[in-house]
Amino acid sequence: MVRMFRFMKKNVIWILIIFGLLLGQAYCDLSLPSYTSKIVDTGLQQKGVEDAVADSFRVETMQNLLYVSTEKNQKTIEDGYTYSKKKDMYVVKDLDTESHDHLNDVLSKAEMMLYIMEKRNIPVQMIPQVQMPQVRKEINKRLKDYPDTMITQAAILFVQQEYKAQGVDLDQKQNDYLWNTGKKMILMAVVAMICSILVALIASRIAAELGKDLRNKTYETVLTYSAKEMNQFSTASLITRSTNDIQQIQLVMTMIFRVVLYAPILAIGGIIKVQQTGSYLSWILIVAVGVLSVVMVILFGVVMPKFKILQKLIDSVNLISREILTGIPVIRAFSAEKFEEKRFDKANQDLTKTNLFVNRAMSCMMPLMMLIMNGISVLIVYSGAHGIDAGKLQVGDMMAFIQYAMQIIIAFLMISTIAIFLPRANVSANRINEILDTKSSIKEPEHPQTPEKQGKLVFDHVSFSYGHAKEKVLDDINFTAHQGDTIALIGSTGSGKSTLVNLIPRFYDVTEGSILMDDVDIRNIDLKTLRDRIGFVPQKSVLFSGTIASNLRFGKKDALESELWDAIDMAQAEDFVSEKEHGMDSHIAQGGSNVSGGQKQRLAIARAIVKHPEFLVFDDSFSALDFATDARLRKALKEKASDVTTIIVAQRISTIMHADQILVLDHGKVVGQGTHEQLMKTCDVYQQIAQSQLSQEELAYE
Ligand SMILES: Nc1ncnc2c1ncn2[C@@H]1O[C@H](COP(=O)(O)OP(=O)(O)OP(=O)(O)O)[C@@H](O)[C@H]1O
C-alpha cells in the first residue's frame, strides 16, 4: 500500500494542505468540550464570573483585600488595579495572561479569607494589623486540606457579592457570558465543519486521480505484456484488478486522508486535553484504550485472513461469469445451462459466505464499541461524582472529560473502521503491484537494428517450449523464405503450427535457435519495426467496435480510401462491404459480433493487407472461407502482392498445394518439407492428409 503513495508525489502540496486542515479541525473539535465546561461551570454555576479577578472593586473592598494580604501580594494587587475617580472604584488593568493568572492566585486567597470572615461576621479591620500574619498562617494551614476548586468557588462567590454590592446586573452578566461562549462554540463548530468538507473534497480529488493514474499505468503495463504474461494472469483477474482492486485502493486512500491522519491527531489532542481537566480520571481512559485494543486484535485476528480469500473469490466469480457470458451460444447448444448455473452458483455462494462472515464479524464491532463507550461514560460519571462531591472536580470539567474520552474512543473507532478496509486495500495494492512489477518477457533490444527490407525470413534450428515446460512444442525447425515465397504449414491439430507463426512477431521468444528477418535476429529488431513489417491474421479474427474503415486502418492510420478498397477487393470482401447500407462506414459491433465468421476473417485479412507489409502471416485464416473464395483470395494475393513473403497455416491441402514450400508438422517436428508434388511422393503424413481431403470438387477450383 505504501508504494501507492509514490503515485501521489505530484499531490504533495495538497496532502500538506489536508494535514493543515486536519490540524485546524482537530483544534476546533477539541476546543468544544472546554467551551461546554465553561458554559456549565462559569456560565451556569458561577453566573458568568470567570475567576477571582473582578472587573472592579469598591474602595472599601480593595482596602480589605490589601489588609489581609502579605506585602508582596499587596504589591501584586495594586499593580493589577488602577483607581478610577469617575467610578470611585478600582478597575482591573489590561493584563497579560501570566500576570492575570498570578493576580488570580493572589486574589483567590485574599477573597477566600474575606469570604470566611464575612460568613463568621468577623469585621476584617477589627483584627489588629500585627495579628494579620498569624491569622493568615492559621487560615493557610486550614486551606491546605481544601482542594483548589473550593478556594476558587469561595473567591467567585465573593466576587459575585461584590458585583451585587456594586449594583451590577448579574443575570445580564451571566447571559452575556453564555452568549459569548455559545457564539465561540458555534464558530468553532462551523470552522471544524468547513475544514472537514475541504479535506473530503481534496481527498476525493487526490484519490480519484490516483485511481486514474493506476488504471492508466496498469493498462499501459498490460499492453506491453507478451502472451506469456497474459497467460500468467487470467483476463478475468486483470479486469478485476484494474476495476475492483483500484476502486478499493481509491476508497481507502480517501479514508486515509480523512480518517487515518485525523484519528491520531484527535487522540493525542484528546489525551493532552484530558490531562488539563481531571487527570485523576485518566486511569479510566487507560482501561478503555486497553479494552478497545484487545477487542480489535481479536476481531482482526479472525477476519484478516478472510480478506485475501475474498479477493480471490471475486476473481473466480468474474472468471466464471466472463466465461459463461462469452460462451452463451455454446452453452445453449449443448443444453449446459443447468451445469453452468451450478458452477456459477457455487462460486457465488462461496463469495457470499465469506462476505457474510466478514460483514457479520465486522458488524459486531460497532455495538461492542458503543458498549465500551457507554461503559466508560458511566465509569467517568461514577468516579467524577465522587470528585465533585469532594470538591476536586467541577461538573463542567467532568462533562468535558466525558467528551474528551469519547473523542479518544472515536479516534480508536475511526482507526478500527479503516482497519477493516486497510487489509483489503493492501491485498488489492499487492495485486496491482504484481501487474506493475511484471515486466514483459519480450525485451526490446538494447541496440536495435533496422535491416533493409528483403522479404527474407529464416528459421534457424528453432525450438520452443511454453513457460517452464520441458516438453518442446517445436523442435529444431529450419526453413528459409525468400521475397515473394509462400511457405505453408500443415499438420494435425496441436502439432505446433500456431506456435510457430506466433514466434515471428515475437509474441513468444524462441527457446533455442533463432529467427532471422532480412538477415537480422528478430530479437535485435525494435519491436515496433518488426511488427510493422508483418501483416498478421490470427486464427481467431478479432475486430474492434467502430466501423469497417476504422478496423481496416488499424495498422495504417492514414490509409487512403482507395487503399482500403484495394485490400477489401484482394480479401474478397468487396461484395458484402458494398452491399452494406453505409459501405465502409458500416458499424462493427464489439468483437465484430454483427458480421459472420467468414466476413470477419476477410476483414481481418484486408486489415493485414492495408499495412502493405513485407510479410503476411495467415494463421489458419482461410478456414471460414468457402473453397471458391479461398481460391480467389489466393489468386488475388499472388497477383497483387507477389513481392510479399507469405506464411500460411492451413488445414486444407487445397489452400496450400501451390505454395513454394510446404512444412508438414507432427508433434512439433518437421516430418516433411518441399512442394506439394515432392511431398506427395515422399511424406506419408502429407499423403494421408491429402488423400483424406482432396476431392475432384475441390481440385476443380484450383
Ligand atoms: N499458451 C499455451 N501454453 C501452453 N501450451 C500451449 C499453449 N498454446 C498451445 N499450447 C500447446 O502447444 C501445442 C501446439 O499448439 P498450437 O496451437 O501451436 O497447435 P496448432 O498446430 O496450431 O493446432 P490447431 O491446428 O488446432 O490450431 C499444443 O500441444 C498445445 O496444447
Automatic annotation (TrEMBL):
Keywords: ATP-binding, Cell membrane, Membrane, Nucleotide-binding, Transmembrane, Transmembrane helix, Transport. InterPro entries: AAA+_ATPase (IPR003593), ABC1_TM_dom (IPR011527), ABC1_TM_sf (IPR036640), ABC_transporter-like_ATP-bd (IPR003439), ABC_transporter-like_CS (IPR017871), P-loop_NTPase (IPR027417), Type_1_exporter (IPR039421). GO terms for cellular component: plasma membrane. Residues 457-692 form the ABC transporter domain. SMART domains: AAA. It is a multi-pass membrane protein. Its main location: membrane. It holds the Pfam family ABC_membrane. It is found in: Cell membrane. Residues 185-424 form the ABC transmembrane type-1 domain. The chain crosses the membrane at residues 185-208, 251-274, 280-303, 368-388, 400-422. It comes from the Bacteria. One of its GO terms (molecular function) is ATP binding. The keyword Cell division does not apply. This is ABC transporter ATP-binding protein. It comes from Absicoccus porci.
